[in-house]
Amino acid sequence: MKKDDDKGTTTLSVSMVTQGKTKFFTLTMPIEVLAECATVETRTINPIEGFQRHLDERRAEEIARYVDEGNSIPNSIVLSAQAASNLKYTRAKRSITFTRTRASFFIVDGQHRVFGFSKAKTKTLRVPVVIYDGLTRAQECKLFIDINTKQRPVPNALLLDIKGLAEAETDEESLLRDIFDRFDTDASSPLFGYMSAAESKAGAISRVTFNAAVKSIFHVFDDKDLEGVFEPLSAYLAAWRAILRRNDASDLLLKPTVFKAIIQLFPDVAERVAARSEEYLVPNFEAVMTALDSAKTPKLFAKHGGKFRDLHELLKTELTKGFRVRSK
Q: Among 82, 84, 268, 311, who pairs with 304 as Cys (CB 3.0-4.6 Å)?
């Protein structure tokens, strides 16, 4: 139920919810009312200008496009009624009535969604809303902190899996999934038994780490298909496993920083193999990595300060030191 009158008030049907000692209202609100009456700061004169000062307009436009494509965002916008709203609850009718002003409600959570909804071309939207009434400024701040700290984000690895199930992957993301799965399930893979698809855990390469590393070197592959990426990359990593094994450092490859740095080095090593007019095979990778086949290499892995790019530069320097022009 939505009723407006010429006095600038709106009446909406609500449900009152009690959680512990706290009560709040749940309802749906037309987006035009929400955009007119809600602000991201209690003292702003114009809520839209307030949005533009405090929020990321690009993110809001992404939300608008998403909604205009027919998608839904079911999360509730959390509001705190301000004195200007003159909010009144009628128990018998299970409704609230409030004055529509430019600062009737303070947005505790969902600022970008409100801004995004207001920018959407679809103007008949009703969005789920939670309204708290009678909160002090300190209570509003505590509620904001609670909402943003008590909720645990979904692990990135799980999001990648869900994205695949939802058939929402790009071609590149789909290829990354296939490559990871091949390394994970192919018994000939140098990473077989050392990968974790669903979660991050010690002693295993997660899907998130793998995707980030391999995506960064996609540009060097002419054949961007499963075999075109898997075969040379598998041979390269097998060469690294052999080198690290000979230097009593097998487990280092499974550390995220080391793995990312080693993948970053792939184009440099592969270029040297190609310069020899040789195939991308394990012995050929090892042949151009002789300078890294040393007890010194594991010690380099302790000097990167947790930054894979710094470690990559150290490895690249060592690789260059060992380069020799081969006689014909």
A: 311
d(CA 318, CA 35): 59
Indicate the domain borders of the chain: 2-150, 156-321
Residues facing 126 on adjacent strands? 30
Q: Phi/psi class of residue 306: alpha, beta or left (left: φ > 0; alpha: ψ in -120 to 50)?
A: left
Distance CA 158, CA 74 (A): 20
Here the tokens at position 297 are: 């290499």
CB contact at 8 A, 267 and 220: yes
pLDDT beyond 50 at 42: no
H runs (alpha helix) in 151-307: 156-165, 171-185, 207-215, 226-246, 256-275, 282-288, 296-300
Q: 187's torsion region: left (phi>0), alpha (psi -120 to 50) or beta?
A: alpha
Q: Under 8 Å CB-to-CB from 285, ≥6 apart: which residues?
A: 235, 236, 238, 239, 269, 270, 273
Q: Please give the Cα distance from 132 to 143 (Å, whole number).
A: 10
3-state secondary structure of 167: coil
Kindly give, in sequence order, each residue whose CB lies less than 8 Å from that of residue 300, ignoring residues fewer than 6 positions away.
Answer: 311, 314, 315, 318
Number of Cβ within a 10 Å radius of residue 268: 16
The DSSP code sequence of 290-328 is GGGSSTHHHHHTTSSTT-HHHHHHHHHHHHHHT--PPP-
Nearest one of 53, 49, 77 to 63, comparing CA atoms:
77
Q: What's the whole-number mean pLDDT along residues 305-320? A: 83
E strand or H helix at 260, and its extent?
helix 256-275
pLDDT tens for residues 6-35? 568 999 999 999 988 889 999 999 988 988
Q: Output the pLDDT for position 185.
A: 93
> Residue 159 — φ and ψ, nearest 5°?
-60, -40
Distance between CA atoms of residues 303 and 208, nearest Å? 24
Q: Any idea which of 96-105, 136-145, 205-214, 252-261 has the lowest mean pLDDT? A: 136-145
Q: Residue written as tokens 């008030």?
A: 9
